[in-house]
From TrEMBL:
GO cellular component: cytosol
Keyword hit for Transferase: yes
Protein's GO biological process: 'de novo' pyrimidine nucleobase biosynthetic process; 'de novo' UMP biosynthetic process; amino acid metabolic process
Subunit-level organization: Heterododecamer (2C3:3R2) of six catalytic PyrB chains organized as two trimers (C3), and six regulatory PyrI chains organized as three dimers (R2).
PANTHER family membership: ASPARTATE CARBAMOYLTRANSFERASE, ORNITHINE CARBAMOYLTRANSFERASE, MITOCHONDRIAL
Reaction(s) this enzyme catalyzes, per UniProt: carbamoyl phosphate + L-aspartate = N-carbamoyl-L-aspartate + phosphate + H(+)
Listed name of the protein: Aspartate carbamoyltransferase
This protein's UniProt keywords: Pyrimidine biosynthesis, Transferase
Residues bound to L-aspartate: 82, 165, 220
Amino acid sequence: VKHLLGIRDLTRQDIEQIFQTADEFKAVLQRPIKKVPTLRDTTIVNVFFENSTRTRISFELAEKRLGADVINFSASGSSVSKGETLIDTVHNILSMKVDMVVMRHSASGAPHFLSRHIDVPIVNAGDGINEHPTQALLDAFSIREKLGGVEGKKIAICGDIMHSRVALSNIYALKKLGAEVTVVGPPTLIPKHLAEALGVNVTYNMREALEWADVANVLRIQLERQNMPLFSSLREYNLAYGVTRELLDSLKKEVVIMHPGPINRGVELDSAVADGNESIILQQVENGVAIRMAVLYLLSGRKG
Ligand code: CP
C-alpha cells in the first residue's frame, strides 16, 4: 500500500498489521523517553484545508515521536486565499524535498485526486463526507483494547450517518474485522438508500440500538454540512437520539461509549456520559498517536 486514502482499500491483514505496529509504538509512548529515531531523515507536511484539533495535533505528535521533521500548512493564511490550486500548493511544498503528505480537505476525493499527481505517500486525514481512515483505525484499536478484540462485537454507530466520514470508515473497518454493525439515528440522517448501500443493520430507535450494542460510537451532528436543518431542534434531537445518563442507566448492561470529537455536549451526548465510567473517549485520542505512528512508519517503507 503506497497511500492511506481510505479503509475501503485495506484488507483485514493490513489493518491487523497496523494494530500490531501500533501496539509496539504504544509501548514506546509509555516510556520516559517517548521518541524513536525511525523517521529521523524524513520530512512530513500536514496540509490542512479544514479545521482540526485532535487529528492535526495527533499527526504532528506522531511525526515528532518518530523523529521526523514536520511542516504544518493551513489553507487559511496561505496563498490558497490568492487562488493557488491544491496541486500547485502541494507541488511547491514537495519541491522543498518533503517526503510524505498528510492532508485534510473539505472535498470528498481530494486526496485521491492528489495521489494521481504526486509521487510521495499521502495519508488522508479526512476528506469531506467520504473517509477518515486513521479515525476508524484508532476507534477499532480502542475497541480491541477495551474488549479484547473486535470480531463478533456489536457496535452501534449513532447519529449523523449521512454526513459522517467517520461513520463510513468505521463501517468498512469494523466489517473487515468481523464486528456486527448497526447504524442508528433519525431517518433524515440515514435515508433508506444509504442504509441499503452501507450493508449494515439499521434502526431508528436509540434505545433498541443501545440494548443490542456492546459499544456505541456516537457521532457529532454536523450542522456545517447541512444546507437545511434535518431535525426540528437540537433539544428535540437530544430527547430522541441523545445518549443521556438516564437512558444508559435504564439499560440492563454497560455499553462502552465512544465519540470521535468534537462533542456537542447536551446534543448527541450528555456531559454525564461523555465524562462517565463507560466513556473511552480520551483513550481514543491517546491511541490516535500510536495508530498514526504505525501508519506513517508502514507507509515510509522503513524496516527495523
Ligand atoms: N476526530 C477528529 O477528526 O477531530 P478533529 O476534527 O478535531 O481533528
